[in-house]
Specification:
By secondary structure, the protein is α/β, with parallel strands linked by helices. It has a single domain (3-225, 276-301), classed as P-loop containing nucleotide triphosphate hydrolases (Rossmann fold, 3-Layer(aba) Sandwich), CATH 3.40.50.300. The longest helix has 29 residues, at 245-273. Helix 9 links the parallel strand 6 (182-188) and strand 7 (215-221). Helix 6 packs across helix 8 (163-177), helix 7 (142-158) runs parallel beside helix 9 and helix 9 packs parallel to helix 11. The chain has 12 helices and 8 strands. It has an 8-stranded mixed sheet with strand order 3-4-2-5-1-6-7-8, sandwiched between helices. Helices cover 53% and strands 15% of the residues. The structure holds adenosine-5'-triphosphate and magnesium ion (MG). The site of magnesium ion (MG) has 3 residues, from helix 2. Adenosine-5'-triphosphate (ATP) is lined by residues 19, 21-27, 141, 219-220, 281, 283-284, 289, 292, 296.
Length: 302
């Protein structure tokens, strides 16, 4: 099977990238954006802080940085709240009067899911604007992805799809459920905990949202230093009693073999337990994150 058959997000409007902290979500999200060649792509980062936590003036509006075909933005809940309220209210002054009001501030602060709702509103608004072919979203760590994506469904249920927020929540919920519009990609390391968490996330998504992951990207996978035919020969080389550069080189290669075979086991484990396409991304040794994300993009578009 080619990578092409494994990549389910190619035609999706919104691609959510999730995973545990530090597994490479941000790099992979950037790589996905790079891999969508010839398309207008918006890369979205999401801040995780509360709507009203004393953010600076500049985060009150949505700022888009243009870098050729890929644009990027770091969405703060405050900027999204302003943009969402702007849709329902007649003027910026009224929006300011509401968000600057102590009573409503306290309400928004304590109301569950406001941050998630306004961020999602904005993400799907980008799609609806027609300015971008794809919006790639770098989500916060796994536990949050689930609570994040389930918010519209919960809100739509609570409000029975009535009123502007109820209707909007209903639409969002449908868009998230629709696998043509939305892909959910999880980045995972070939290690026990991340593998288990990815499986749990898939199952929890099915239980709560009614849909699971579309792809799993196994990232930072150690590659074997030799062709499989040479593996046995390398393993059998003994360095015992020798203390020279050549034996150090052999030991280093034998360690690399161990890492590669351990990672291979986790790849098999995940394949066995999870019926979701998986793409393996090797551990690369690049000088900077831009060249790393381009290297990963090449794997994704091969
Ligand atoms: N395939 C890879 N090969 C080598 N290094 C990688 C690879 N993927 C990611 N990294 C490195 O791993 C580190 C973490 O990556 P990244 O910041 O994308 O993770 P993250 O999941 O977004 O982290 P956080 O949860 O903190 O936001 C970075 O230093 C990045 O350069
Ligand atoms: Mg990150």
């Amino acid at each position: 099977m080619t990578v092409d058959n494994l990549i389910m997000w190619k035609n999706s409007k919104v691609i959510f990238v999730t995973g545990k902290g530090g597994v490479g979500k941000s790099i992979v999200a950037a790589a996905i954006a790079h891999s969508l060649k010839g398309k207008k792509v918006l890369l979205v980062e999401t801040d995780t802080y509360s709507v009203f936590d004393g953010e600076s003036e500049k985060s009150e509006i949505i700022q888009i940085k243009n870098r050729g075909k890929i644009s990027s933005t770091n969405l703060s809940p405050q900027s999204c709240l302003n943009a969402t309220l702007r849709k329902f209210l007649p003027s910026k002054r009224v929006v300011k009067a509401i968000t600057g009001n102590r009573v409503t501030r306290a309400f928004f602060d304590s109301a569950p899911s406001v941050n998630e709702f306004v961020l999602l509103e904005q993400i799907y608004e980008f799609v609806g604007s027609g300015d971008w072919d794809h919006v790639v979203v770098d989500l916060p760590a796994t536990g949050h992805a689930l609570t994040f994506l389930v918010v519209p469904k919960t809100l739509a249920k609570m409000m029975r799809g009535i009123g502007p927020i109820g209707k909007s929540a209903n639409e969002l919920s449908k868009s998230i459920l629709d696998k043509v519009t939305t892909s959910i990609v999880s980045v995972c390391l070939p290690e026990e905990m991340p593998v288990n968490e990815t499986i749990e996330l898939h199952e929890a998504l099915i239980d709560t949202l009614g849909r699971g992951l579309d792809d799993v990207i196994l990232n930072m996978v150690n590659q074997s230093p030799t062709e499989s035919t040479d593996t046995k020969a390398l393993r059998d080389l003994s360095t015992e009693g020798k203390d020279d550069i050549f034996s150090e080189f052999i030991s280093a290669n034998q360690i690399a073999l161990d890492w590669a075979s351990r990672d291979e086991n986790y790849i098999h484990e995940l394949k066995k337990r999870l019926d979701v396409p998986q793409v393996v991304v090797p551990m690369f040794y690049e000088d900077n994150d831009l060249s790393l994300s381009k290297r990963i993009a090449a794997v994704l578009s091969n």
